[in-house]
Design goal:
445 residues, binds flavin-adenine dinucleotide, five-stranded parallel β-sheet, 11 helices, FAD/NAD(P)-binding domain, alpha/beta
Length: 445
């Protein structure tokens, strides 16, 4: 029989998303013993390079035009593994949580927690010198159309960033982009333990109470962590898997992902918005449930996007990267989707979702044409579900204390979203982690 490594602590966190990192930090700072278990590595090695991205992304075993995981219907779901979760490779765009949205669902997120989270995660507006000429051209076109296009907030320390760098999604080699590593490093300095390259296999549930978890590390060693408090921060899909296995059938019965579609066009001459800072400008169109932003992905990622539109046209387009202009629209979708028994995801779009996508794409087309792109050159990419969540929704699987029906078992990631936020959610997850830590520390006093 294989030897089991036993650990005892005040709290264990399954998955190292930004929420999990903050909970570990808060517990460690309060002198409590926190253990965080993450299937990816605890490292910033190779961040900023293609190798760093590929080693963290959950890739498909076979090469195809969609190298990352996707739904059965074909929408990509890019997932990042590693302590810090998706923040390692995210674009760094920051949207403050909407207090009225959360209040409507029974959670009063204090403004002081939002302010604290924004300060700690380096939220600031894109400065003028980081807005490239192509992005400005798109802004002028959008403003001419009466759209309130403006600089967006970013999780960036602009003193360390370089104008013209478009590599947020490769991870930041300069340390200019905030990630969950900032929280976990502080947690570890204060005594928290990280079991990395260690996959949580199951939650320990007995008589309606969760007493910790069992995990296996990369060398095949088994770890059993016994605790009074367990938090799942394994992301919309990882958390749903663990809850379902623990006997919560509603977990993963719904799924939303904020579908994102890029629209490209090509200028007949001059430079587009390639090699410009990611998501510098845009606006949240709350009335229509969408967010717009200008962005052209780094060339290799863009190659896959263009190939998704038309493999035949790719050779002609790929050499026109410099003249390309890109925008995207992110849609707040309905929860029509589910995780199947084998872990795959099915996601269909409702009539409302399709209408929002159609609206967003048509606005993008108009902006691009007004900015000087040839109307015949406009193309749209397939949809990507960048914010997989709503798989353990507030009000269904968790209550307003983010606790499941199993006592002592909590969730803190995008799984708990009661509705698709339709905007980048990392900051919201961090604020939820502050809210949950406050409740749990009181319990654990
Ligand atoms: C390309 C891209 C760009 C993005 N851009 C932005 C942006 O600009 N702004 C923004 O706010 N958001 C952005 N996001 C989304 C953002 O990264 C996530 O919403 C954020 O990280 C919070 O996600 P989460 O906490 O639900 O889970 P995640 O961040 O996905 O973390 C879950 C972690 O749990 C681990 N895990 C899963 N299962 C297990 C298991 N069984 N055992 C152990 N560990 C496990 C995973 O490896 C992962 O590290 C982007 C996402 C992508 C993919």
């Amino acid at each position: 029989m294989r030897k089991i490594n036993y650990h005892e602590a005040d709290i264990v966190i399954a998955g190292g998303g930004p929420g999990g990192c903050e909970i570990a930090r808060r517990f460690a700072l309060a002198g409590k013993k926190a253990v965080l278990v993450e299937k990816g590595s605890y490292s910033s090695r190779f961040l900023g390079t293609l190798a760093g991205t590929l080693s963290r992304l959950e890739l498909r075993p076979r090469f195809s035009s969609m190298p990352v995981r996707s739904t059965i219907e074909g929408s990509a779901i890019p997932l990042c593994s590693g302590v810090g979760g998706g923040t390692l490779l995210y674009c760094g765009s920051a949207f403050l949580p909407d207090r009225s949205f959360w209040l409507r669902h029974g959670i009063d997120l204090p403004q002081r927690m939002i302010d604290e989270a924004a300060g700690e995660t380096w939220v600031s507006e894109t400065p003028d010198e980081f807005i490239g000429p192509g992005s400005r051209r798109l802004m002028r076109a959008a403003l001419d159309m009466g759209l309130p296009w403006a600089p967006l907030k970013r999780h960036i320390d602009f003193n360390r960033c370089v104008p013209g760098c478009d590599r947020c999604t490769y991870g930041c080699a300069l340390g200019a982009k905030w990630t969950g590593l900032q929280y976990i490093d502080e947690a570890v300095d204060s005594g928290a333990m990280v079991l990395d390259r260690c996959r949580v296999r199951s939650l320990l549930v007995e008589q309606g109470r969760c007493g910790g978890l069992v995990a296996t590390d990369v060398l095949g060693r088994i770890h059993e962590v016994r605790v009074p408090l367990t938090v799942c921060a394994a992301g919309g899909i990882g958390t749903a898997r663990l809850l379902r296995k623990a006997g919560i059938p509603e977990a993963g019965a719904t799924f939303a992902g904020d579908p994102t579609g890029f629209t490209f066009g090509f200028l007949s001459e001059g430079k587009g918005n390639s090699h410009e800072h990611n998501m510098p400008m845009g606006f949240k169109d709350a009335d229509n449930g969408v967010v717009f932003s200008s962005m052209l992905a780094p060339q290799i990622a863009w190659f896959f996007q263009v190939m998704g539109d038309s493999v035949k046209k790719t050779p002609g387009r790929i050499f026109s990267y410099k003249r390309a202009m890109g925008l995207f629209v992110k849609v707040s979708d309905q929860d029509r989707g589910a995780m199947l028994e084998n872990g795959s995801i099915t996601k269909t779009f409702t009539a409302r979702d399709r209408e929002r996508i159609r609206y967003g794409r048509s606005v993008n087309e108009k902006i691009l044409v007004r900015a000087g792109c040839d109307p015949r050159s406009i193309c749209h990419t397939d949809l990507t579900l960048g914010h997989p969540g709503q798989t353990a929704p507030l009000g269904v699987v968790v209550d307003e204390n983010l606790e499941t029906g199993i006592s002592g078992l909590y969730c803190c990631d995008t799984s708990v979203m009661p509705e698709a936020p339709g905007m980048p959610p990392a900051l919201t997850v961090v604020v939820l982690a502050k809210y949950l830590s406050g409740l749990l520390l009181q319990k654990n006093r």
